[in-house]
Amino acid sequence: MDDFKLIDVWVLLAGVGGAVLPVALRRQTHFSDALVQILCGVLTAAFLAPAVITYFFPQATPSVQSALTFLIGCFGPNFAVLTQRWMDSNGEALIARLFGRFFDPGRGRDDRA
């Protein structure tokens, strides 16, 4: 097997381990809840970790990549939940401010005249 493919598998395996850790440390009421938690962690690690590593750590060694992927697999779903809750409570005001900057019909007019 090519060394680069083996490294990719190892990094993904670290993400799986990170996704399993929170499930193993807490008591789950249902198997389906645990499975969804693990799947979300693995998907977060598989899709988010390469972007984070490429953007912030382009020269990272495979061991650093594995550590980051493990952490993203472990904490990524919780971070996504926190972000979603923040968007639910503050999203409307944020969107109104954003669209107000671009689409405010009074913006740029001189109201002193």
Description:
81% of the residues lie in helices and 0% in strands. The chain is mostly helical and 113 residues long. It has a domain at 3-76. It comes from Dyella tabacisoli. Keywords: Membrane, Transmembrane, Transmembrane helix.
Cα separation of the termini: 75 Å
SS strand fraction: under 5%
Q: How would you describe the shape? A: flat
Look at the structure and give the mean pLDDT.
84
Along the chain, the helix and strand elements come as HHH
Please give the number of β-strands.
Answer: 0
Query: What is the number of helical segments per DSSP (H or I, 4+ residues)?
Result: 3
| Estimated radius of gyration | 21 Å
Transmembrane segments: 6-25, 34-57, 63-82
Keywords: Membrane, Transmembrane, Transmembrane helix
Protein name: Holin
Helix/strand layout:
Layout: H1 3-25, H2 31-56, H3 62-103
Keywords summarizing the entry:
single chain, 113 residues, mainly alpha, 3 helices, transmembrane, membrane, Holin
Could you write a compact summary of the structure shown?
The protein is mainly α. It is built from three helices and no strands.
